[in-house]
Amino acid sequence: DKLEAADKTAVEQAIAGAKGALEGEDASAMESAGQALEQSLHKLAEVLYKGEAEAGTPPGADADRSAGAPEDDVIDAEYTEESDEKAN
Fold it and tell me: Does pTM top 0.85 for this prediction?
């Protein structure tokens, strides 16, 4: 929804072009289609990261997590190993 129609169409065309090139045997066509796909995906990523930055959410951040909540339930503990003689 954040992507404009023209950008979305460009990505879809690049995907279709890459698929078509993979079906053929021309290595240069595959390489140029791959580069076109890469460029369109970079544009997509740029739009997505820009939208997140404007919203104040760092890229990759989980919006459901509260700011001070610990990530894991970690319990700090110490232990000692008993030798086989004590165990028997």
Answer: no
Which of 53, 26, 45 minimizes the C-alpha distance to 17? 26
Tell me how far apart the alpha carbons of residues 21 and 31 are, in angstroms, rounded to a whole number.
9
Number of residues in the chain: 88
Half-sphere exposure of 32 (CA within 13 A, CB side): 6
Instruction: Compute CA distances 8 → 3, 12, 20, 57, 58, whole Å.
Output: 6, 6, 18, 23, 23
DSSP string spanning 7-47? HHHHHHHHHHHHHHHHHS--HHHHHHHHHHHHHHHHHHHHH
What is the rounded average pLDDT of the residues 74-86?
76
